[in-house]
Amino acid sequence: MTTKYLSDAPLEIAMGGRALLTPLTGIGQYASHLAREFAQQGHNVRLFYGTHWSSSIAEGRGNSLVESGGGASLLTTAASMAKRFARAYVPSIYRFMPHVEQYRFNSGLRRRQTPHVYHDPNFIPFRFRGPTVITVHDVSWVRYPEYHPPHRLQLLRANFDKALERADRVIVVSDFVRDDLIACFPVSPSKVSVVYNGVSRRFKPYTADATRGVLERHGLSHGQYFAAVGTLEPRKNLLTALAAHARLPAAVRRSVPLVLIGVEGWMTDSLHTALSASLKDGTVRKLGYVSDEDMPLLMAGARALVYPSIYEGFGLPVLEAMAAGVPVLCSTAQALLEVVGDAGLTRDPHDIEGFAEDMQALIDDSALCDRLVAAGSARAGQFSWRHTAEETLNVYRQVLM
Q1: Which among 4, 17, 104, 121 could disulfide-bond with 47, CB atoms 3.0 to 4.6 Å apart, if both were Cys?
Q2: Do 391 and 375 share a structural domain?
Q3: Cis peptide bond N-terminal to 131, omega within 30
Q4: pLDDT, tens digit, for every residue of 166-223?
Q5: Is 0.85 topped by the overall pTM?
């Protein structure tokens, strides 16, 4: 059992850290920023990486939350390599790993002070005899199972109902996810708390001089490319972005290429087929995974963000683009409308002609771009990871009362 909690005392927080293992995606960003904010506020955070516990953040340039973490960095590097290998070559291992990981989770807890609260930011928690919080980022595997690899569907279908039962509180990242979760699962609305994602202070407007070094490495020019950011997978609907860009005049496509930024995901055969000709003639670029240091500069250097996703729980790149002073053109997926408000251009995710028209307008109409940049900056100012952390701590305190 957990020790008695005093409201004015620092919290001992156990947090799932598997999403922090590279390659880092949106859930990893969420966990990283939460852990750092908690530590800055004086709370003690321990992260479980599936193989070991540590106070060191795996993805962060050797950074530690509360200790040097030198030995842990070797372990997290090895865990990251194992994760990449399993994802690529042994997907069936996901059926067996939870048992091994639960043993490591329990054994690590026995050697440390029992946490006040355990929070898993990646849907499915381990068994913990104490207050448990989970974050549900979406229920896309229910709404669009065809967009998910079989092993992930199997994992979620076998474990998510039990995860909801074990959790004392469920955090969701938008009103849309709350409503979708309650529609799909028998969870009490009183158990669900909406806590919006934040945006890193590194995402801000940068001048052409500031972005030049990073952009030149990728053969890009400031303000002369459309950015499409996110894991390459079907739900991101990059085929619409490619088809819309292909409708622009050839000279425009050469001068303002479409740049895909994100890790290789799954079920991408049709995407790669569609990409082939455009990659050869240079009108589309594929950068793959980009470091946390480079990403804000690549975002700030874009003419606009193009984000035609079919389904999102939040849509972090949309918020990051607005913070970076970049116009947003996104789909009408409900969570994206919730985040962008009236600060972006929106189209039905299958409206290829509409996306093409808006892309051309973002090239031709400087007044439109200025209006979107101003509105986006104001909108992004309403979000911060500090506020996300404070609201999350309030959830912890509620389950500890």
Answers
A1: 17
A2: no
A3: no
A4: 999 999 999 999 999 999 999 999 999 999 999 999 999 999 999 999 999 999 999 9
A5: yes
